[in-house]
């Protein structure tokens, strides 16, 4: 497939599997975020997400990713004026995203984050994030991913909150 450097307005590009893997190797993120939620028994919400962030000129690539995985959403980020394709639904991560990377694996440094992410997603899919013992493992693992990423809560604060919960 030959790809031009400029896209037509509203265009969606058909992407090949290995291209998707390469694009994610360069521009993708596998992340797990946490939010304090008093209504939850464990007090902490666990949110895995897979995303690719690109400049507006590459919006057709993000639309191509959305068509390729048949899930997720594209949104504009005012903070850095980029567009982000993101998959947050755990079922879609398990059934669509992870199988792609098992068949067409990453080979760079991001592979280590993906391996941890896959373990966490499977634990969340099995509802183990609702058990304090497993949630502790998930938090520990998640905080070894994306070392330069911004976090809302420090790991120690989440673990302290988890230790205070009467579960």
Written overview of the protein:
The protein has 167 residues and is an alpha+beta fold. The protein is 44% helix and 19% strand. It has a single domain (17-164), classed as Endonuclease I-creI. It is built from six helices and four strands, in the order αββαββαααα. The chain has a four-stranded antiparallel beta sheet. α3 crosses α4 (110-125) and α5 runs antiparallel to α6 (155-164).
Q: What layout of secondary structure does this protein have?
A:
Elements: H1 17-27, E1 28-36, E2 44-54, H2 59-69, E3 73-77, E4 82-87, H3 90-103, H4 110-125, H5 132-142, H6 155-164
Helix pairs in contact: 3-4, 4-5, 5-6
Shape: globular
Helix content: 40-55%
Q: Count of DSSP E strands? A: 4
Name of the level-1 CATH class? Alpha Beta
CATH topology: Endonuclease I-creI
CATH architecture: Roll
Radius of gyration: 17 Å
Which strand order spans the largest sheet, edge to edge or round the barrel? 1-2-4-3
Number of discrete domains = 1
N- to C-terminal separation?
55 Å
Q: Please outline the major beta sheet.
A: 4 strands, antiparallel
How do the SSEs run, as a string of H and E? HEEHEEHHHH
Structure, briefly:
This protein is an alpha+beta fold and 167 residues long. The chain is 44% helix and 19% strand.
């Amino acid at each position: 497939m030959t790809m031009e450097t400029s896209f037509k307005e509203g265009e969606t590009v058909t992407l090949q599997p290995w291209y998707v893997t390469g694009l994610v190797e360069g521009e993708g993120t596998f992340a797990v975020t946490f939010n304090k939620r008093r209504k939850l028994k464990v007090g902490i919400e666990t949110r895995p997400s897979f995303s690719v962030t690109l400049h507006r000129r590459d919006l057709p690539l993000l639309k191509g990713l959305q068509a390729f995985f048949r899930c997720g959403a594209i949104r504009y980020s005012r903070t850095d004026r980029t567009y982000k394709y993101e998959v947050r639904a755990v079922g879609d991560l398990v059934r669509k995203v992870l199988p792609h990377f098992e068949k067409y694996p990453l080979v760079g440094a991001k592979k280590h984050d993906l391996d941890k992410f896959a373990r966490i997603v499977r634990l969340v899919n099995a509802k183990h994030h609702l058990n304090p013992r497993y949630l502790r493992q998930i938090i520990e693992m998640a905080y070894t991913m994306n070392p330069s990423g911004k976090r809302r809560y420090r790991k120690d604060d989440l673990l302290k909150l988890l230790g205070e919960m009467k579960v």
